[in-house]
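okkk here we go again. third time trying to get the zinc ion bound version out, last two times i messed up the smiles copy paste (missing a bracket lol). double checked this time i swear
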Amino acid sequence: MRHTEADWMRFNPFEGDFGDGEKVLADKIVTAAKTHAGACLTCGGHVAVGERHRARTEAYNGRVMTFRFCGECCDAHYDWLRGNELPLEERIRLRKANVA
Ligand SMILES: [Zn+2]
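finally!!
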């Protein structure tokens, strides 16, 4: 972890997306109680048991969904906010490799 959890939260992962009625129920840094395989929305990697990561729960169209971002990606999100885009580009490249 290169940045603080408060800094992680400054990034809005869905800025410019949706915007048609979804409601954020929870958005916070949590400790994984179990491994979430392939769960990180940014890199497509695992969130390991015990890992501090971001979990954002939204209600949309009668469904409740939780989106997770691993710690490495949360660091990259904040780098991007500060004008350093390279770490996030690297994480997104990982996603293409993980999901392919
Ligand atoms: Zn990730």
